[in-house]
Amino acid sequence: MPAAAEPTHPRVEDLDLAEVLAALGHPARLEIVRKLASGEEMSCGEVVPDLPRSSVTHHLKTLREGGLIRRRPQGRRLCLTLRRDDLELRFPGLLELVLACRSRPLDSESDEQPL
């Protein structure tokens, strides 16, 4: 049986802002990015231990195809890293802005929108 083809990662110049923002638009994917923001390479189990495997696969594929993460197989383990330098090169300041913002509920007594 032939080995499965390695997934491709978009080149820096091919990163698309709409795809990056769409990938960041789900709370689980945003949390994965936050966990990887330390710069440490982590395994899937360390990053998303509480999700069903099918959900993990979907979220990691979306983040990889959006250009946010790089995955590297190491034996039976899948290692993940945030493409911080690539994102900074293509969209300066975007990742830091996203990581600095925390979702907060809309204040029912105020017309202010959450950041």
Task: Characterise the protein shown here.
This protein is an alpha+beta fold and 115 residues long. 43% of the residues lie in helices and 12% in strands. It has 6 helices and 3 strands; from the N terminus they run ααβααββαα. It has helices at residues 17-24, 27-36, 44-47, 53-65, 84-90, 94-100, and strands at 42-43, 69-74, 77-82. The protein has a 3-stranded antiparallel β-sheet with strand order 1-3-2. The model has no long low-confidence stretch (mean pLDDT 85).
Question: Topology of this structure?
Answer:
Layout: H1 17-24, H2 27-36, E1 42-43, H3 44-47, H4 53-65, E2 69-74, E3 77-82, H5 84-90, H6 94-100
Antiparallel strand pairs: 1-3, 2-3
Helix pairs in contact: 1-4
- What's the alpha carbon Rg, rounded to whole Å? 16 Å
Q: What percentage of the residues does DSSP assign to strands (E)?
A: 5-15%
Instruction: Give the strand order of the largest sheet, numbering strands 1, 2, ... along the chain.
Output: 1-3-2
Largest sheet, described in full? Answer: 3 strands, antiparallel
Which word captures the global form? globular
**Unreliable residue runs:** none
Order of helices and strands: HHEHHEEHH
Give the overall pLDDT as a whole number: 85
* Number of E-type strands: 3
